[in-house]
Amino acid sequence: MSFFIDSSKYSYSNIFDRNLSSLKWSYKARVFLNLLRTHTSNIGWLDKNHEFRKGETADDIVERLWAFCEVSIAQTRGFHICNLPGCEEHNKSRKPILATRQGITFLLGSAEIRVFGKGRKVYAAPNLIYHYVTAHEYQMPDAFVAALMTGPLPGSSEYTKRVEELGMRLTKTYQV
Ligand SMILES: [Zn+2]
After folding, report:
1. pTM value?
2. What is the CA(127)–ligand 1 centre distance, in A?
3. Is residue 127 part of a domain?
4. pLDDT (tens digit, 9 = 90+) per residue, 61-96?
5. What is the domain count for the chain?
6. Rounded to the nearest whole angstrom, what is the distance from the C-alpha of residue 25 to the centroid of ligand 1?
7. How many angstroms does the Cα of residue 80 sit away from the middle of ligand 1?
C-alpha cells in the first residue's frame, strides 16, 4: 500500500482518470475548480517501515469512524493488505482485512473514506484506517478526529453533495 505522511497533500490525478473520463467537459471543469479550492490531506496511510502515533481511541470516536467506512470512495478492484507487525499471517495469505462491528462485517482495503472539516478542508484516508485504529492502536491526528466528530455524516445530503463536488463516486462498502 502507498505510504503517505499524515496531513500530506492528497493527489487527485488518478481519480480524474478513473471517474471523470466519461463525463462532460463542463462538469469536469466545475469539479476541477472545486478541487482547486479544496485542501485535501492524507490521513492513516500506514506502513510497517514508518512509525506512527499510538494510543487509545475512545469508543464514540471508533463508532463514528465506522459510520464513515459504510460508504466507499475511490473504490479499486484490488485489495491493499495490512503490513503492520501482528498482521504477518494476513500479509502472507493475501486475504483482505475484515472488520466487524455490531454484527456487520466489512471488507476493508479497496476503498477510501472522506471526512470534511471546516471550510474547504477535506481528509482522505484508506478505509483500512478502521483496522489500524482498532487492531494497531493507531492514534489519528487531533484535527482529523475533530472533523470526524463534527463534519457531515455519510447518509446525509450534505455529505453526498460534498463528495460529488470532488467528482467522486460513492458506493456501499462490501459486506461479508
Ligand atoms: Zn493489521
Report:
1. 0.90
2. 12
3. yes
4. 999 999 999 999 988 878 888 999 999 888 888 888
5. 1
6. 41
7. 11
Q: How far away, in angstroms, is 111 Cα from ligand 1 center?
A: 16
In a domain, 144, yes or no: yes
Max CA separation in the chain (angstroms): 48
Query: What's the grid cell of residue 36?
Result: 482547486
- Cα 83 to averaged position of ligand 1 atoms, centre (Å): 6
Domain of residue 135: give its range.
13-172
Q: Taking the CB of residue 137, how many other CB atoms lie within 10 A of it?
A: 13
CB neighbour list of residue 168: distance below 8 Å, 6 or more residues apart: 15, 19, 73, 74, 114
Residue 23 neighbours by CB distance under 10 Å: 12
At residue 29 the predicted structure's pLDDT band, cuts being 50, 70 and 90, is confident
Report the separation in Å between the CA atom of 20 and the middle of ligand 1, taken as the mean of its atom positions: 32
